[in-house]
Input
Amino acid sequence: MEKEKFCLVVFSGDMDKVLAAFILAATAASMGMEVKMFFTFWGLNVLRKNKFTAGKNWLQKMMNILNRGGADRLPLSKFNMLGLGPALMSIMMKNSRVPSVPDLIVTAKELGVKFIACTTTFGFSNSLAR
Output
């Protein structure tokens, strides 16, 4: 019998939306499903290295300076408050024993979730970490 399949499109780089996507992916994988996560547009920030100057040309380098990316640097979709919101959310998550996005990435990989980076958008964010 063929495994059930579950695919998520991660097109946002907002912490709360990314958390939901990884929780769904990990849950589906733990239920024995074949899970793929397709990262595109701002969702690629989840997979990006936290680098300042990666890029093939000056436009890519400038974009990467302005938008460093990284799973531990994601803003909130609401109440970002110049970065204070994600810091407060991280504290509350830690106090409630809720895994962080980097922790959920590790869990998803351990459960066999496949990560796919959009090759069209990849040209804009060419410093992927994972």
User: Anything to note?
Assistant: The CA atoms of residues 93 and 99 lie 7 Å apart. The radius of gyration is 15 Å. The longest strand covers residues 5-10.
